[in-house]
Design brief:
Elements: E1 2-3, H1 8-20, E2 28-30, E3 35-37, H2 40-53, E4 56-64, E5 70-78, E6 83-85, E7 89-91, E8 94-96, E9 102-104, H3 108-127, H4 151-163, H5 168-175, H6 188-203
Antiparallel strand pairs: 1-6, 2-3, 4-5, 5-6, 5-7, 8-9
Pfam families: ERF
Organism: Clostridium puniceum
Protein name: ERF superfamily protein
Length: 218
């Protein structure tokens, strides 16, 4: 994270901003997991007037890498000239193809969807917004807390995403993560429960359909 030499004025303004913003209600459904989330448009609609009242503004810029990754840079500005610049976040746009495999997507629609997702994620983060998207019952007292899941769990989840033909972007949005590797131990039980429910939807309640990733208890 980069910032101006002083953020004294910005900090005061941000505290006032957060004092005026209550939990933002969700306005769109995630069909893959029958959950809801707040769209970028709703976030901006609710927060922009309060930001302006406190001399704040958020700027976001799309970024690209030669590797094909697409990213977003988010900067929080104050009218005094002070700023906080979040670390850029990158992901590779992907689409599912025949056989449940993923390939790099190069069409404008895939790029636009990814940029919108990254903007929403980083916008919430830099303003510390409460959108009520954290799963109930997964507080920090759970084993592991905010630690990331291990390689076995990553392999299991990747296998289920492939076998159940789950939209990766919608899954990551549900999991509140930028990648499967960044899913937290805290959220793992709820995520696995959702994936297992999806498995029942696809294969039936009594299905013994194997999952490519193997067992989470391997």
């Amino acid at each position: 994270m980069n910032k101006s030499e002083s953020i004294a004025n910005l900090a005061v303004a941000l505290i006032k901003f957060n004092g005026k913003v209550s939990a933002i209600s969700k306005d769109k459904k995630n069909p893959q997991f029958k959950s809801e989330y707040v769209t970028l448009d709703k976030l901006i609609e609710i927060t922009r007037p309060i930001l302006q009242t406190n001399g704040l503004s958020v700027m976001q810029f799309p970024l690209t890498k030669d590797s094909g990754e697409i990213g977003v840079q988010t900067i929080l500005l104050h009218e005094s000239g002070e700023f906080i610049e979040g670390n850029p976040i990158f992901m590779t746009p992907q689409r599912m193809v025949k056989g449940g495999q993923y390939e790099v997507a190069q069409d404008p629609q895939a790029a636009g969807s990814l940029i919108s997702y990254l903007r929403r994620y980083s916008y919430q983060a830099i303003l510390n917004l409460n959108t009520g998207e954290d799963d109930d019952g997964n507080d920090a007292s759970n084993a592991g807390g905010n630690a990331f899941i291990d390689k076995v769990a990553v392999k299991t989840i990747e296998g289920m995403i492939k076998d159940l033909k789950i939209n990766r972007m919608e899954f990551l949005s549900y999991a509140h993560a930028m990648s499967v590797e960044q899913i937290t131990v805290k959220n793992l039980p709820v995520i696995m429960d959702a994936l297992n429910k999806k498995k029942v939807e696809v294969y039936g309640k009594n299905s013994d359909q194997p999952i490519t990733g193997g067992s989470i208890n391997d």
